[in-house]
Design goal:
Largest sheet: 2 strands, antiparallel
Number of strands: 2
Radius of gyration: 31 Å
Helix content: 40-55%
Strand content: 5-15%
Number of helices: 4
C-alpha cells in the first residue's frame, strides 16, 4: 500500500508513528524509593504504641542490615566490574597518586577514578629497634615515645539485632 494506496475500506492508511523513546529511569531515585519502602516496612512491624526510642532503635537496626547487604552487594559488583574490565585492577596495578580520569563510559553509566594520597604509617617497633641499634638509649626512646604519642577515642562499633 505504498504511493497513496488505500485500504479495502477506502481510507488512506495512517502514517506509522515513530516509536517514542522510553522515559529515562532515574536509578538513584529508584533505589532511594526502595530504601524508603524498607524503612516504612520496618516501622510497620512495630506495635502502634512503640515508644520513640524503640522506633529509633528499629530504624537503626534496619539501616544497619541494609548497609551490610549494600556493602556485600557493592563488593560483589566491584569484583565483577574488575573481572569484566569496567574497573581497572587497582590492587594488582595501582594508578599513581593524583590520577583523575574516566575509566569507563557506557550507555547508562560512567565511572571515574581519582587517586588521593593516604596517610603514611610508621613501623614503630622497627624504628625503635633501628634507633636503639644506632646508639639511642631505650629509656630516652620510651620517654620520647610517651611524650609524642597521641591517643584518640576508641572506634565505636555498634551492632543492632532484633530482641
Amino acid at each position: 500500500m505504498l504511493n497513496g494506496a488505500t485500504h479495502t475500506n477506502g481510507k488512506t492508511p495512517a502514517k506509522p508513528r515513530a516509536k517514542a523513546e522510553p522515559a529515562a529511569i532515574d536509578g538513584t531515585a529508584l533505589i532511594a524509593q526502595a530504601m524508603a519502602e524498607i524503612a516504612e516496612s520496618i516501622q510497620a512491624m512495630l506495635p502502634r504504641r512503640a515508644s520513640a526510642t524503640e522506633r529509633a532503635a528499629a530504624e537503626y537496626w534496619g539501616a544497619s542490615i541494609a548497609n551490610q547487604l549494600a556493602e556485600a552487594w557493592r563488593n560483589r559488583a566491584k569484583r565483577l566490574a574488575v573481572a569484566q574490565g569496567v574497573l581497572p585492577d587497582h590492587t594488582a596495578d595501582p594508578y599513581p597518586i593524583g590520577t583523575s580520569e574516566t575509566v569507563y563510559v557506557g550507555t547508562l553509566v560512567t565511572v571515574s577514578l581519582k587517586v588521593v594520597e593516604q596517610a603514611d604509617r610508621v613501623d614503630v617497633p622497627g624504628l625503635v629497634a633501628d634507633l636503639i641499634a644506632s646508639g639511642i638509649k631505650p629509656a630516652v626512646l620510651k620517654r620520647l615515645l610517651r611524650r609524642h604519642t597521641k591517643s584518640f577515642a576508641g572506634a565505636h562499633i555498634f551492632s543492632a539485632s532484633l530482641t
